[in-house]
């Protein structure tokens, strides 16, 4: 397998056939001027050789560095797709306000893109979302509706739906949990990038379930390339957890875009294990990421340790700068 951390050569899979952008053209040259939204995607795939130091040589553990997107998370991809699809179809008029429920990252992507395209954005999110997330949203100019934290993002969804039902002409409601553009962004972007960056040698894909767009889109694409791929779906171990962005689906509203038939294996992660791995990633790998990324890597490492050979890929969902006020960094 080509080393994902190596500098790509002119004939490497990641540069020989660029992933198509949303308008059907090739991705922009890395050194060419581009709009902010055109810099979403094409994130590096990193080998986690320190974390996976005890793995046998035929096993490789890799992570897609989605926290390096302009908005700091994997959610830049679906947010761009949903906004642009809405504008192109006419479902989103420029006189309308984009409104949606979020745990923070998709909201930040909406707000960033909204600022870049001069669009009004209102977001509902649990009141206990990290202060960094709320401050970032306000910095981009978004209006916030803070909801009861005990209801999680489900309560935020209910609040948004009530507002839209009361005044449908005022809002464009992309509804990230039920919008096919969410998973399609990963089917067209993240999935092909992983395939090319591993030289087609990815054997296992592991990621947590939130809106489920990343899991659904990436797995659909990778299984088309190789039906033997093992898709591992990760959830928090209990309904009451500290992993923003992830859902405990047995006790939550299941997103309409979720395709349970794509799952080959289920795994769970405790909040404590996720936080421990998050600290470990920053201190030993130099990767300052959030707890959902920690959960993903913890689960992916478990999968990798169960193998005699294979390439395991997971997602570094968002930047750790959104959590710096949390006291768990000091543990």
Name the features:
Rossmann fold; disordered N terminus; 331 residues; alpha/beta; six-stranded mixed beta sheet
Number of helices: 9
Largest sheet: 6 strands, mixed
Count of all domains: 2
Order of helices and strands: HEEHEHEHEHEHEHEEHHE
Strand order of the largest sheet: 1-2-10-7-8-9
Structure summary, number of beta strands: 10
The CATH class assignment of the largest domain is Alpha Beta
- Helicity level, as a percent range? 25-40%
Which parts are unreliable, with pLDDT below 50 for 5 consecutive residues or more?
2-26
What is the name of the CATH topology of the largest domain? Rossmann fold
Overall morphology: globular
CATH architect. name of the largest domain: 3-Layer(aba) Sandwich
Q: In angstroms, what separates the terminal alpha carbons?
A: 37 Å
Topology:
Elements: H1 13-16, E1 45-47, E2 59-64, H2 76-89, E3 97-101, H3 105-117, E4 120-126, H4 131-139, E5 143-147, H5 152-166, E6 171-172, H6 180-197, E7 204-208, H7 213-225, E8 230-236, E9 265-269, H8 271-284, H9 291-305, E10 310-315
Parallel strand pairs: 2-10, 3-4, 3-6, 4-5, 7-8, 7-10, 8-9
Antiparallel strand pairs: 1-2
Short précis:
The protein has 331 residues and is α/β, with parallel strands linked by helices.
Structure description:
The protein is α/β, with parallel strands linked by helices. The chain folds into two domains: 13-74 and 186-330, Rossmann fold (3-Layer(aba) Sandwich), CATH 3.40.50.1100; 76-172, Rossmann fold (3-Layer(aba) Sandwich). 35% of the residues lie in helices and 15% in strands. The chain is built from nine helices and ten strands. It has helices at 13-16, 76-89, 105-117, 131-139, 152-166, 180-197, 213-225, 271-284, 291-305; strands at 45-47, 59-64, 97-101, 120-126, 143-147, 171-172, 204-208, 230-236, 265-269, 310-315. The strands form two sheets. A six-stranded mixed beta sheet has the order 1-2-10-7-8-9, with helices on both faces. It has a four-stranded parallel beta sheet with strand order 5-4-3-6. The radius of gyration is 19 Å and the shape is globular. Residues 2-26 have low confidence and may be disordered.
């Amino acid at each position: 397998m080509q080393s994902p951390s190596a500098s790509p050569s002119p004939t490497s899979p990641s540069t020989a056939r660029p992933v198509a952008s949303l308008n059907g053209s090739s991705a922009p040259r890395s050194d060419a001027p581009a709009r902010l939204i055109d810099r979403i995607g094409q994130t590096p795939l990193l080998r986690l050789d320190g974390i996976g130091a005890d793995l046998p040589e035929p096993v490789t553990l890799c992570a897609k560095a989605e926290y390096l997107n302009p908005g700091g998370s994997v959610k830049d991809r679906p947010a761009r797709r949903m906004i642009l699809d809405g504008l192109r179809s006419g479902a989103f008029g420029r006189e309308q306000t984009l409104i949606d429920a979020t745990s923070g990252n998709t909201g930040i992507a909406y707000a960033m893109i909204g600022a870049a395209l001069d669009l009004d954005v209102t977001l509902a999110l649990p009141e206990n979302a990290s202060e960094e997330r709320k401050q970032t949203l306000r910095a981009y100019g978004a209006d916030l509706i803070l909801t009861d934290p005990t209801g999680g993002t489900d309560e935020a969804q209910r609040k948004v739906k009530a507002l839209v039902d009361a005044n449908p002409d005022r809002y464009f409601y992309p509804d990230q949990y039920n919008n096919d553009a969410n998973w399609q962004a990963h089917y067209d972007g993240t999935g092909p990038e992983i395939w090319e960056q591993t030289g087609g040698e990815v054997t296992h894909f592991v990621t947590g379930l939130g809106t489920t767009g990343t899991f659904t889109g990436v797995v659909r694409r990778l299984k088309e390339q190789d039906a033997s791929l093992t898709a591992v779906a990760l959830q928090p171990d209990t309904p009451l957890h500290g992993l923003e962005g992830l859902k405990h689906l047995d006790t939550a509203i299941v997103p309409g875009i979720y395709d349970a038939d794509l799952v080959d294996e289920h795994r769970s992660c405790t909040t404590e294990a996720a936080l421990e791995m998050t600290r470990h990633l920053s201190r030993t790998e130099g990767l300052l990421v959030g707890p959902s990324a920690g959960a993903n890597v913890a689960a992916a490492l478990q999968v990798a340790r169960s193998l005699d050979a294979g390439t395991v890929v997971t997602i570094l969902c968002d930047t750790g700068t959104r959590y710096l006020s949390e006291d768990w960094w000091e543990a």
